[in-house]
Amino acid sequence: MTCFLIDPTAKSITAVPWDGGVDAIRQLIGFETIDSDEIDAHGDHLYFDEKCFIRQTPGVGRFQLDSLAPVAGMGLVVGAGASAPQVTLQALQGRVKFL
Asked: Is the dihedral of CA 66, 36, 38, 23 positive or negative?
């Protein structure tokens, strides 16, 4: 299945393959410490580095999805229950602001 990887440094959102596992989320985000926020009524979630708010990593971009707190580093949008997200790539692009 696919998910959407948000790369604030490249200012891009791309569909990437995902096996549905937490280890793959950690690998795609690049950190062991992960957290998530639900982003819509379908149960789609944004996964990100849990310590992104306190980690001072130079050269890492930031993004904001809707009114959530800005995230430093990569983000990953996946669907509910380890499924593909319901949100479309085009809709997600309209909801993300690169900072």
From this structure: positive
